[in-house]
Design goal:
Elements lengths: L12 E6 L7 H15 L3 E6 H4 L20 H10 L4 E7 L7 H11 L5 H6 L10 E7 L4 H6 L2 H16 L4 E7 L8 H23 L13
Parallel strand pairs: 1-2, 1-3, 3-4, 4-5
Length: 223
Amino acid sequence: MTLESPSSKPAPRHAVILCHPDPKSFNHAIAKAYCDAVRALGHEVVVRDLYAMGFDPVLKADERPTVKDFEISKDIQKEIGLIAGCEVFVLVYPIWFGTPPAMLKGYIERVFGAGINPWDVETRAHKYFLADKRLLSFSTSAMSEPWLNEQGQWLSLRYLFDHYLANAFGMKRDEHVHFGNVTAGMPQLWAGRHLYAVEQQAKAICASLLAGGIEMAVPAVAS
């Protein structure tokens, strides 16, 4: 028996799902910094810019797996085909009124949740394309982290969104890096620090994949 050399294995793939309407936004800069960092390490990236794609976030009646005539729409089949096989699923978005943008929520409902019924979520018996993969989120807000904590928003987002999604889809783990005080007048030094944190997170998760899943040591929140 011969052992497969590391160089013969396919490069790990990352799906970066970006949700911000302004192509000049800091969220776009975050997505670019992450992609540049993982590509520099030889990994592959699939970028899904939801606004640029004109993604339709509205779940159709016959897309619900509990109805008699259930079927996955062709556009969703195509989308799943593009991101299936990725090891890491990266969400990049602003926090609007305490939650991710509606378009991202629609993407999760139509794409991540395609064909999964409530019993699948409860029993976690399904083996979907997200099973045993990693969820990594980068979020921004104009508010400070202390203010978000005072409102209970940060804890709510972590439990009602990140942890729930990871558990519902059988994902291996979830990480979240948040950048507060992100505004048009943000000092360039802060922006540089934030993007450096993105690069370090990208390098950490790439190293973790190479090492077979060792815990990442990058802080979960950067304000």
